[in-house]
Design a protein that fits this description.
It is built from ten helices and no strands. It is an all-alpha fold and 323 residues long. The protein starts with a helix and ends in a 12-residue tail after the last helix.
Amino acid sequence: MIFSTVGFLCLLMALSEGAGEGWTSPYIVTLLSIAITSLAALAVNELRHPEPILDLRLFKNFLFALSNIIGAMLAIGLFGAIFLMPILIQNVLGQTAMKSGLITFPAAIASGLMMPISGKIFDKYGARGIVIIGLVITTWTTYIMSGFNLITPFAAITFWMAIRGAGMGLCMMPVTTAGMNTVPPHLVGKASALSNVVRQVSASFGIAIITTILQKREVFHFANLAQSVNMNGNEAYALQTALQNMAIHQGLSYDTAQGVGLGLIAQRVTLLSMVNAIGDCFMVAAGMCLLALILCFWLKDKKKPVGPAASSPVIKAPDAKLA
């Protein structure tokens, strides 16, 4: 209990604060060192203990381990997009938190509607087909979302997010169920706890990685865009002239007008660099979904029996000696 508490606490703190503090800072390095040491001790103790809290021996089950790997990749892609969309809608497009919620809400509805449908399909045909279809939709729409920019209509953002939510709804539940179905009944509780830990840590790890990539790529794109700005071109001259005229009407000086012009250009470059960085992050999320899609081909279908044989118990004929 102590090893798990200390290990996961330090790991989650390091993942959540690594982007802000710097991954090489003493604070983050210390947290990661404590986390790795504690989790290693936890693994050794759990493998030797007859009644472990997290039964790591369950990962010897290939399908259970595979479903957890796929679920971890889906968690990274899912929570990465959930983290990115409010930044795009509010910080870049300048909308309110209410508008951001209204734009992203249909995706949650689509995901919720598709989950019971995916459950029925899973019962009839197994996990592999429905998971592959859901991940194809999720990967494709995540790649489409990497092209969102400053002029993308809100209706288009809502549409593609809803389609992505439907794809997530098709694949999330069958992946988990496919792994849990291979676990012996007396180990289902331990397997559920282990799966929850894997998903929670993966989600935190995904947000931390997406945050780091976002910051690094924003700096990269800002430097490239700033170098491409031509202050001696016709467009820059026209902007400076317009600002000078506005400054004269407002009673401002020439230096003030020139400073305002440079500030507007810098603001535009900042917005464009943020858009490009968010697009790069969506590409990373799409790559994670693509890896999960490839792994899904190793899932095995275990269909439940359907028809009268599945619902009615088999009644044996009475023994002839009893007649």
